[in-house]
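Every protein is a chain of amino acids, and every chain bends into a shape of its own. The protein below has been through that process, and both of its lines are reproduced in full.
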Amino acid sequence: MPTTDPTPASSRGAHEEYLRSLGLPLMIVPSTRCREILPRSAGVSAGLAVFASGLSALDRSNDYAVALLERVGEDSPEWDLIGFSDPIILLLLLALVLFAAAPVVGWLVARVVRRLGRASGSVVGLASAIALVLVAPLTFEPHDGPGLRTTSLVLVGVLVGTYVGAGSLVRWAARRVRRELGTMGHMVARVLPVLMLAVLFLFFSAEIWQVMVALSWARTFAVVGVMGLLTVLLVAITTRDDLQDELEARAPGRELRLSERINILLVPVLATLIQAVLFACLVFLFFVFLGWIAIPEATETRWTLRPTEDLGGLLAGVPVSVTLVRVSLTLAAFSALNLAAAAASDAAHRARFVRPMIDEVVHGLAARESYIRARRRG
């Protein structure tokens, strides 16, 4: 949950944490974000260091298994003699333990750093960064798992992400997902009935099944990606226009840095996209269920002129076909695009779902002004 709205006399730290809870980390001045890079990245760096070590252990176990396979063959009785004391099994178990421990270690380090001062937290953050770069390459062979170059690039990504406030945005998005799940009923009741008139006709049309059965998974995801990109562009353009009009009406002449303008636009865009993704997931599950009960294999074979293809791998036992999944994915992406169009054109939808997001941004700008006044007092 967001922190309590700080009073004008609150410390700068309270204002900064409040801005982060609103999903506005770039409202914090760059100098403060630079000083806090190491303490705030300590937990992520420590967790990734443990995870990288697990990857190295898994890769080393695989090397032992490949070497044994090349030496004795696939049907050799030596495979039956492998026990818990064998390096293959020990390294595999170690990898599983490290994978499970990585998020726990990251969480514990983050909690410890929050209880320390900035200097002590920076020391812990520096130690975690060094561990991320060196532990996995030095503990195992250089060719096992991520090497020095890979871990160095990962560390750069962690530090850049910490500077721009990626962790704050992720936590804000998680809270937003929980919040939007509570409002999905109102959205579905308003949008789904009208959408179903068009989408149901497409779902029971043989032409879309004939198109999707001939597509590979790569082309299917490309189609979904194009619709997703159109959704993002539509949401970004309409939200930018709404924000510009709102800022000119409520706070003309307000000067914002480029990063602050991006952050202000990013918050309502992400909120709208979260709505669209959740709605698309619901539509996908609905069509998979509807196709399972309403379209038997004989009908699908008659439409596609091909025998049905079952899912493989871990989903081999699921009683739906590959074509049904592809059709459902495409219609779900189309539904998300339709929802974004409704947010841009439907006045009732905008008043119910978009207007509160704009008000949240205006509230965030007021929090920024309070933060600036607190910095001036300091």
Observations:
- The chain is about 80% helix and 0% strand.
- The chain has a mean pLDDT of 80.
- The radius of gyration is 26 Å.
